[in-house]
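LOG
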Amino acid sequence: MTEKNTTNTAELALSPKMDARYDSDVSAEPDREEISEKRILRKIDFRLLPLVVALHAVSLVDRTNISVARISGMDDDLDLDIGSRVSIVTSTFFIGYILFNIPSNILIRAGGVGAARFLGTITVAWGIVTIGIGVVNSWVATAVLRSLLGVFEAGNTPGSIFLVSAWYRKYEVQKRLAVYFLGSLFIQGFSNIFAYGLVQIGNHTTYKGWRWIYIIEGAITAVLGVIAYVYLVDFPDSPKTKFLSEKEKGFVNERLSWDRGINETHKVTWKSIREDFKDWKVFACAWIYFSATIGTYALGFFLPTILKKSLGFSLAASFVLSGVRDTFAVLVSALLSWLSDRVRMRGPFVCFQALLSIVGLTLLAYTKSPASRLVGAFLGAAGSNAIIPSALAWQANNCREGKKRAVASGMQVMAGATGGLVASYILRQQDGPAYVPGLTTIMTVQSLTVLLSIFQSLWCRRLNKFADEGKIVLEGLEGFRYTM
């Protein structure tokens, strides 16, 4: 493809009339009777999304099921309630998770490993580690295994995000990322009920109930990893991608080249990583993701305690309301993600979502009425969760080359893990049961996200204007424009 043609197709990709080319330029495209864009997208959706959603769901369950295990006898059996052992065991997961995010995303494209083999293998590995936690007899061994759990899970989220963003055009990706995150969140909402059922096995065996949580859930994870190894799709340009015909693969890769003008096989090098780190927008989107996860983790860890001890709900009602909160967050996030793709903008939505979270957390922290505080909890959770797919899509849209998206998405997920680590400490025990100082800290972090999203949107618009005037070339490609 010549430079002129690359420019024209990139410009077409940014035009609402782009799809008209499929009908008018039959010389460049397969026959429409043979190739249906909607049919191919549905084919990709059904083959890709269910598996990556399931992988993310089990990763969330396996990293957080310690809370259910502790109240089911784990504390007594392993003496976890002595000193700071619980904090050590909990935090070891995040150390490996943070350190291996970016290296994992480099490896998924290196040496022909491929997404299916990589994600399937690490899923089997952390499933085995999860089973191991169910059979150890010391808190030190548990801490070591949770650190390994973090190492293996580190590649799942950034790798899946990288894979999803590789298959879709820039204004198709957020609704898919919303399905990825919100689908897994919805599934996770039922995990405590399932875990309660597993605990009952302990009444009929020599193993305590909490051990069966890890053994059964770890086995399910390992089986799912084998399924992913066999059936998960690879990258669009990979020879391992067999579920599409050669004509269909050609169609997919060409429509992606219109959108980004790139070959996804660009290798990540130390030089390219240094170049990526020079782009402040990469760090801005990482911060936005951090601000979201600090809210989602904090509410996930402590909202049941707030509902029970501060608002006076019963234990059963606290768990039910926490589940309803997740469902509400899924609905709000799905709607906003659809609208964001529809209007082809990210920054204004990030700003609105952060404000929604701030308003909710303000009601939760500073009002007296239980009803208003409950509304605040729902709004805070919805706003924080909705930021996640918006931040991921904004990053993916503005990183043209696959190698840059690999590093950028790894940085985002690493920032998100840091948010989880911070969230576990800012809501201090001495501030309970309302945790006002911690909630105020989250509001402060998300206030910066509001300002940052506004600034980045205006900056992208300014650069797009310069590119329209021919003064600069964005991301090394004539016709490429940043998403605001």
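LOG (cont.) second protein
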Amino acid sequence: MKQHEQWTSKIGFILAAAGSAIGLGAIWKFPYMAGTNGGGIFFLLFILFTVIIATPMLLAEFIIGRSTQKDAITAYKTLAKGSKWHYIGILGVVASFILLSFYSVVGGWIVTYLGKSLTGGLSQFSLEEYGGLFEQTIANPTQVLIAQFIFLAITIWVVQAGVQSGIEKASKVLMPLLFIIFMVLLVRSLTLEGASEGILYFLQPDISLITPNTFLMALGQALFSLSVGISIMVTYSSYLEKGENLVRSAGSVVWLNIIISLLSGLVIFPAVFALGLQPDEGPGLVFVVLPAVFDQLPLGGIFLTMFLVLLLFATLTSAFSILEIIVAVIVKDNQEKRRKIAIIGGMIIFVLGIPSALSFGILSGITIGERIIFDVADFLVSNIALPVGAFFISIFVGYRIPKNILEDEFFQGSTVKKGLFQVWYYLIRYVIPVGILLVFLQSFGLFG
């Protein structure tokens, strides 16, 4: 195995990076965020913020990684020798441990529901009964821990095989399959009687629904949906060859993410409206409302199983990237240690995730600031680590890295006009830090 691995192709990198970005954010979180924040107007603002804020941040992480060819901690040490900027990378690694510890719990729920769907255990229930089933499922200690272990075992198996033979190979299979399944579900959802109401809700912006909170929620979703803030993309881009076009690669990842978000909305909202349900069901939309929706459709069990397979694929591709940032920091260029580190890291994450897995059952009485353990872990990553990390990465790139180095990386392998660099540089230095700060303040309820 090569001392410093690289992606075998540009498409391999794009699919892996897009897989990291899509995950639960686009398929699980995006629909319920849109459903609770105005539908079409949220989607419009999400696209706007993705283009002007999240995309420049993604490109900034690409530049850090590709320019140094180093892991998430060493990259900052290389660009800012003798400084404390590498703490950004340390924050990313710590956040990754916490993130995958509860992310794998949700992955386990998907594994459990997929198993129930395949055995016919997700049919013939009312909406209320589906809610009860979900509560029973996540409260069962043995079931959630076994499912979480299975999810992490798959993740470890892929990551330990390496960048080329593991992550890239898996992404090249899973991502195209994800799109195929999405298209089948899309056709089925759009042909339901009454689907047009859901399409209008999702694609027709209603300006009267705009609030300060709508802006901030859309900004947060755009930022987090591209996996920026904890140096995941620094790690992935460090495996790129020097001649790759970073601008085009970032654009490809962004548009894939937007397309998946669009497809998620067009699969879910028409189905929800066609059956007279409400779009603002929150996080339970996938596990409670969708099974009820599919149960009322011809061949609904098949379509529900397909959706759960799709959700599992997307969740796994994100999990690969989260574990990889941890493995890369420890392995560095000694690839002989990869298998051992991947297994040890995965097992540590499993142990860390046990309290989160049990926080809906036997540990539900343990709360911190009125939050159960799972919600505390989620809050630490989503509302603290991600915005703080993204804020300091934007400051680091905008003010610490010399402008000539940024220009060299920006234009390497690219034919874009110089004006585009100036726009990106202005956004990184002035617009993005303010935008991220607003999201961070929103997480503490300082805005309405």
